[in-house]
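In keeping with the milestone schedule agreed at the kick-off meeting, the structural modelling team has produced records for the first pair of proteins. Each record is given below as a sequence line and a structure-token line. The laboratory manager (R.T.) confirmed that both were archived under the project's standard naming scheme.
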Amino acid sequence: MHSLFDNCIMQHIRDGVQYNTTDVPVIASNKDDLEIVNGTTWNENIVCTRDVITSGSYRVLLLQQPYGAIAQTPGWGAAFRASGTHTIYNAFEFLNSPGQFYFDKTAKTLYYYIRPGKNIGYIENGDYAVYNNINFGAGASSFQARVASGASGMHNVYLKFTGGSGYLFNLNWFQFTGGSATLTAVYPVWDTGDIKERGNKK
């Protein structure tokens, strides 16, 4: 459900569009990047936002002005309006289907929801991948990754642990398979906040 935000610039012109909080999630960053698309039989209106706020049970997308106001003025049913169907673009929080992507202009990072059968290619030293907001449900018991092309020689492997304060999880082991050897990596244990090596096997 959505409607024009009741903050009048002039008669019949509103400063934003409000949606139920169940329809639009909290937008954490780049709130001025969102685009609202509202199509009619004859045209398509695209208005941009300048901010996203929460007002009661509504998420309010405040429009960039003056274009947000101008888009509401055409006659003959061609104006931007709150009724009908809206499509909102350009927020990381909307990534939910393979093939979608989002470019974070502040972090200069491209996020891509990978399609089945695809992989992250041409990985070089210093590259990394981030997967945000992973829901572990009642708890995950294992982690498995498939490497699409082989690695050879000796390399340093870093596992970075981030999350809320306090205990996150235990790490038992991980392994690489394929080629001429199966390598089971270091068995670490927690010790006063640091990971200490307890041995490895080959």
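The second protein of the pair:
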Amino acid sequence: MTNPCDASKHTNKGIRILRSSVRVLADKGMEGTKIEEVARRAGVGKGTVYQYFDSKKALFEAAVEYATGIYGQTIIDALGEGADLSDSLCQAMRAAMQFADRYRPAAQILLNNPGGQPMESFQKPSLKLRRALTHCLKTTLARHQEETADWDQEAAINVILGTLTHLTLTRLLEEQGDQLAPIDHVATATLPVLLHGLRGPKT
């Protein structure tokens, strides 16, 4: 999944503006965000921001697309790295938590919806993200068909996506100064429940 922002915005300056807008929107929400602050953090003039985005709403929508692009590619890359199904799922869970640590402002944009923006601001990029992750998970499950042949594919994908979202959200809600559980430990502990459910594997 490539970043869904328009190719015309994929310049160094455009990416700087997007990254700055994500940080400011995460900090201040839509209502509190000022284009001047976005420009200052990006190291450009206010007029330059308007060359790329004609309104604050357009900037916000582009920031959502940028954040979903980062999240989607992070998960897709992780799923492709696994040697087997368990490893693929562990890698994806680690990536979901690392996303909250490494790209906290982007995670806040996706999960906190700063300013309580209308759902239509999120709908298109969110649907695109879900379609991309669903396709990747279908490919992953098919690649390990010997382990997943008796699974309900749609139910399995829903559970996996829900788990990844929950892990990202939980990591995001933790205070940065808190003693966070090690990512490897959380992923390893969650894996058996994800694969076998609360009852555990059949004996």
